[in-house]
Amino acid sequence: MSAVSTPVRRPHRPRREESGSPLLLGHGRLPRLLAGTTLTLLAAVWLLPLLWAVATSVQSEQDVMQPGLSPFKGAFTLSAYRRILERGNVPTWAFNSVLIAALVTVLTVAISTLAAYGFSRGTFRGRRALLAVTVAAIMVPPQLLIVPLFEQMTMFHLVDTYAAVVLPQVVAPMMVFILKRFFDGIPRELEDAARIDGASELRVFRSIVLPLSRPIVSAVAIFVFIGAWNNFMWPFVVTNDPDLMTLPVGLATVKDAYGIQYAQAMASALLAALPLIVMFLLFQRRIVNSVATTGLGGT
């Protein structure tokens, strides 16, 4: 009998973890200092317009018009905010914005996920052509669709209704394409195992695909909500009733008879952006993770 030689196992050496951030060009105190200084300067440049808007909104119109580069030219006052709240129906506009943005987000996510799953797993006739049309629709500027969409809403007698504001915004070809690319990366073996156990196609989509796609679905929901909240053009065109206006549209109607009021304009912009700022502060980690996941979903 020949002796069987057993392989000699080499001692396992723990893998040295890379320390530091990928933004640092090397290790040590100097690279960290340079990276921290650069990021601080970039953050200051990004925050400068916001700080200027806040400083302008808490001053009187006379102080804002004073010459000089300093953002603080007078005493602190909330007269611009008080004037907007007195002349406009801000609570109603804010409620309309929340309702419309929520409806657009729910419907867009539902339609986009189903369409993306069909493009990713379906084998129906015309699939390639429909996918090509969907991708081509991404390149169509939304401004080109305002006139035909308005004529369509007029034909169906939906002008000055919530449906007229919501329905045209639920078609999002970009979100369908992003979700489709993510669904392509999900292993099909998991779905085949569920089908062998007797699960229907809808059950596979609901119980297998969606739970594995929570990061990308969260990212799509966040992007759609922000886009629906900031949408000004379409709600401005399709609504005339002040009780149906969204916050950006309603604040734009609050004007003064004495020309451009810079403090009032900045206060209106900050009021419209305040809910998004609060949402970002509350869900900062989820938003950052969603953006990172979206960037890696198509690779």
Write the layout of secondary structure elements.
Elements: H1 29-57, H2 61-64, H3 79-87, H4 90-121, H5 127-138, H6 146-155, H7 162-166, H8 173-184, H9 188-196, H10 201-212, H11 214-230, H12 233-238, H13 247-253, H14 262-282, H15 284-297
In short:
The protein is mainly α. The protein has helices at 29-57, 61-64, 79-87, 90-121, 127-138, 146-155, 162-166, 173-184, 188-196, 201-212, 214-230, 233-238, 247-253, 262-282, 284-297.
Mean pLDDT across all amino acids: 83
CATH topology of the largest domain: MetI-like fold
Number of helices: 15
Strand share of the residues?
under 5%
Please identify which CATH superfamily of the largest domain we are dealing with: MetI-like
CATH class annotation of the largest domain: Mainly Alpha
